[in-house]
Fold:
Amino acid sequence: MLSPSFHNDAAPPVNDPGHVVIVGAGIVGISAAFFLSRRGVQVTVLEAAAPAAGASGASDGAVSVASKRPGLMMQLGLAGIATYRALASGGVLAGEFRERPTFIVASNAAEAEVLAEHAAALAGAGVTVRLLARAEITGLLPMVSEEVVAVARVEGEGHAIGYRVVERLARAGRFTLRRSAPVDGFVRDKTGRVTAVSTGQGGLIAADAVLVAAGNGSERLLGLSGALIPRKGQLLLTERAAGRLGAPAGPLMSSRYLLSKGAAKGGPADAARSFGLVIDPLATGQFLIGGTREDGVTNTHNDLAAVRHILREAVTLMPDLARLRLLRAFSGIRTATVDRLPIVGAVPGAENLFVATGFEGDGICLGPFMGELVHRLICGEPAAVDINALSPARFTPRAA
Amino acid sequence: MTEWKSMDIDLLVVGGGPAGMAAAVEARQAGLQVLLVDQRERLGGAIYCQPDPGCAPVAMSARHRARWQALSREFAASGAAVEFHTSFAGLDSEGLALLERRASAGEAGRVLPVRARAVVLAVGAVERIAPLPGWELPGVMSAGGLQMMMKRRGAVPVGRTLLAGSGPLLLAVASQMVALGQPPVAIIERARPFGQPAELLKLLATPGYLREALAILARLHKARVPVLHATQLTSIRLAAGGGLEVECRGQGDERRFSVDRVALHDGIRPNDFGLPGGAATGGPVLSRAGDCREALGAVAAIEDGKRAGREAARMLGLKLPAMSLQPVKRERRAQAVLARLFSPALTTPPADLPDETVICRCENRTAGDLRGLLAGHDGLSAREVKLNGRFAMGSCQGRFCADATVDFLRRCGAGAEALEASHLTGRRWPVRPVGIATLLAEGGAAADPASVIRIEEE
Amino acid sequence: MSASFFFWRGEKLEFQPGQTVALALEAAGQRDFGPSATGLRQRYFCGIGACQGCLVRIDDTVVEACLRPVEAGIRVEPLVAGPSVDTDGGRHD
Structure:
């Protein structure tokens, strides 16, 4: 397991990477900027729109491995949670990380079977998980439907709101953040090294190292043709319940979500549009309810059919939700990859160009950890986890 | 009776005020099938709000009354179908207009998705309310809200009422209060409308306005209603006895009032929050009419409604001439004169608003919160103001804080010169919060008889 | 015509036909409609359903008191049940 001791690491790097330009002010880019600047490295973040304008600002905030299968993504997810814990106790994210269990809920025998198998896999990966007896369900989760037949309580999970993490780290870090500053390319020397970042209309910003953390926008910048898939998610937010109904101690995740994410055996739902269900009780008394997975869709619209589908399933699981009003419907566009692994590491052919993107629905969970990890790569230091499998080399980007 | 499947509607008109009614009349004359919906139980909107059963109507000028009577006659004869207690929840990305049939004791609410070929949004205006300490307290309402009470009940609510803010509506409401035998304690007007004689003279171009203004002023004068110009409220507090203690500041002097009710008003603006703009692919031809397009009052709303009704018919392929915008232009000029007359002589700079002043009532976000957000940030984006500041994020979805927030940011020189209220409120559905049970209540599928909107056959 | 009644916080109040809930409450001297979800008070304000300041509960659904006509026998309750509110007005998700 990753040591969380890094959070006190403010010592200047042995080899100062010079001026680091980070493309993208989402949770990954801002985290990297925070960790670099804390060690005295000069950082400029160039953001095409505004901080957290993409998926970081339109996501559920799950800091969770509950839906994961054992493997690299599980390992990274656990490191992500450990990072939040460290940053919360270390001060910079104090109050922004709420520890809480996740409840995975099965509504029929088939789902219960998948859930039991999944719980065993989680336990095998070292996650504390417990299947609740029906009587326990009633006592612990009186708000869930009578039809729920099995619940797995996953411990050691948490919640952080992406845009708040970005705001907190941006305030705590000492770096330059430029809004409305889209990047349209790089200037390279004969060896392939990036020497400057082009901001359009001839604007150039000299750079000694560059990190691209621009979500779906990374594809065009790095020539990662065909590697990334925009995956839209529609999300719904209720008004504040204001004490009118009981909230569970953590999110309720339908075990059908496991099938939707393809985490469990039984297969991925590869349809162009699929639905998962997570009912997330927020600190405000609101409920965040999601969502869809719509491949290749980049608009942020909401349609009645999807909204009704999500709400119908949510009310089936937690009937009292029907008494609340829907305050808002919105969408975020995840950055997924064709092989379901993020893309993190040095870009082949340019020793000072790095990328960190493709976290799909795990950006909030992994963002600070990946920011810490990639800041080490930029400083020429070893990463805490072996991330060779995430290298952009697997998509053989052309040396532009 | 004929049953209209939702697919069959030519034109959906949202809002039964003057603009919506006029649009429906015009579209019917062009031969379109029209469904008009209104969130209330009667036509008229805010401006022509009719009294509750058994209550007397408030005084209205003869011209004003004649216009309403003509419009309601034309509408009744037009054959447009009407659904009351039905509000517009938005237009989804597939082009479905979502109509919320509101709940009553005997019937649960439900959402009817309607596929119309054209939609005219005529949802009127909302008032601007400049925040000041205490504006959020019970007993404080908008002047339009007070006027709505009077129009419905034909009476002024009991107790001492103070009118404050800026704009001609304050005078109009005061005059109606006088006519109902219960004048306000005073009118506190930030501007100095009579300090610009050259502007006043321009009202001669619209004699109707001038006549109405003179009648109002004469009535207020006769009733000795104090009108304090160049004066503004600085705070409202709950008094020990249950009333309100109000402080105001004029030029050099301060005054206090003990009242039961304060009605605030700082102008009106289009109620265009969250409304859809361009048409969705395969969606209806979409337009706005009346005050929700440009807040120019009832006369312009009728003309603009006719234009929108005609335009909808033309967009649906009917060969008709476009309508002249001349009458709307005249109203625009008159409103511009009024706006200049009431251009406030002094306003509270954001720096003077105490930290505890509520800016966003829904989420209880204050001037202090906004200052904290600004600290250390240049060129804050609308998204950050929303997400990190929680402004324009509550139940009213920015209708009563987006303008004030943007005004505050602009005048604090936070690099927010280009920020506009619409950047905070966006375009979305639901345009107002809608019950989840209501949204799930089936009523939309064409096969479901409950979803069918019945319209009298011609 | 015989008087009609509805209930506000369990208390029987008279109303006139056609009145909205908000105006019936005002007429009965009830200006404070109870706590809001963020610790302020609910109350009549804009009169046109826009400001959401007059939200109350009827049949446990939330409605704008200024839009909803009163019907005999309905039970109107404050938006927030009991004295508790989310005190966390400044910390939001």
Remarks:
- The longest helix of chain C spans residues 21-27.
